[in-house]
Amino acid sequence: MRDALVAAAFRLFLERGYEQTTVDDIVALAGVGRRSFFRYFPSKEDVVFPDHERCLADMTAFLAASGTEHEPVRRVCDAARLVLLMYAENPSFSVQRYRLTKRVPGLRAYELSVVWRYERALADYLRGRFAGRPDGTLQADVIAAAVVAAHNNALRSWLRSDGQGEATATVDHALEYVQSAFGTAPTPTPTPVPTPTPTPYVDGRPEDVVVVVSRRGAPLWRVVQEIETTLGRS
Question: Which domains does the chain have, with CATH numbers?
Answer without folding.
Answer: 1-43 (1.10.10.60), 49-182 (1.10.357.10)
